[in-house]
Design brief:
The protein is of the alpha/beta class and 249 residues long. Helices cover 48% and strands 15% of the residues. The chain has a single domain, classed as Rossmann fold (3-Layer(aba) Sandwich). Strand 1, helix 1 and strand 2 form a beta-alpha-beta unit. The termini are far apart.
Length: 249
């Protein structure tokens, strides 16, 4: 039974990934900080071949303890994330520090710990859930965009480094996904403002990300329309439209 390590499993893309892997017979090491959501997700998952680890991935000490508890996975999915938004100067230093470690520094630490072990086995895959925000400006979400851009550059570079091995790193760059992250981030108005065509399901993100990862691709933009429109991200008109649709309060 192959083993997968999945962070942020209790909701959204993480839970969809857990279901996908469970349906394909993987043993799952599932990581989440929120115990209440974890229990609810486990009940919904209804899967025996899994272990649950409670960890605040914004804490380097807790992350280091977690890594010592888990054997090297065949698949590592760095999915845990939070929304951080606000114009320049509005986020506290602590909020910026925690978000940066959760979605960048800690992800690098996790990968740097397990990837050399995968290379020794000459087998393994890493998936990083980044964001379409890594490719286009996001006013009033500049911290989030910067973090996602940084981890995208890291993952893409690693995949090139691993070109002649049986180990790969794939970065997924989803756009708007129908999860509860917007409500938790104070951006619920976007669920009403963003057109239906711009939303993709968490299941679609997982299916397309897994296909890309199995093929060893360095990146995937889930959703056909997102892949097409991303070609025009550098055009001024595209940036104006994106800024208008994504206006933060």
């Amino acid at each position: 039974m192959k083993k997968a390590l999945l962070t942020g499993f209790s909701s959204g893309i993480g839970f969809a990934y857990a279901k996908h892997l469970a349906n394909n017979g993987w043993h799952l090491d599932l990581v989440s900080q929120n115990k209440e959501r974890s229990l609810s997700a486990l009940e919904d998952l209804n899967y025996d071949h899994c272990s649950v680890h409670s960890c605040n991935l914004s804490s380097s000490d807790e992350l280091h303890n977690l890594m010592k508890e888990i054997s090297t996975p065949d698949l590592l999915i760095a999915n845990a994330g939070i929304g951080i938004n606000g114009s320049v100067g509005k986020n506290s230093s602590r909020d910026i520090q925690d978000a940066t470690y959760l979605m960048f520094g800690g992800v690098i630490g996790l990968i740097e710990y397990f990837l050399p072990k995968m290379k020794e086995k000459n087998s393994g895959r890493v998936v990083i859930i980044s964001s379409i925000g890594a490719l286009i400006p996001m006013p009033k979400s500049s911290i989030y965009a910067a973090i996602k851009s940084g981890i995208y550059a890291y993952g893409r570079s690693l995949n090139e480094e691993l070109e002649n091995t049986n180990v790969s790193v794939t970065v997924s760059l989803p756009g708007y996904v129908r999860t509860n992250i917007h409500q938790r981030s104070g951006l619920e108005h976007l669920t009403r403002k963003i057109p239906n065509w711009m939303w993709v399901s968490a299941d679609k993100v997982v299916t397309e990300t897994e296909k890309a990862s199995i093929k060893g691709k360095s990146r995937i933009i889930p959703g056909f329309l997102y892949r097409i429109t991303s070609i025009f991200f550098n055009l001024k008109i595209t940036k104006i439209i994106w800024k208008t649709l994504n206006a933060r309060k």
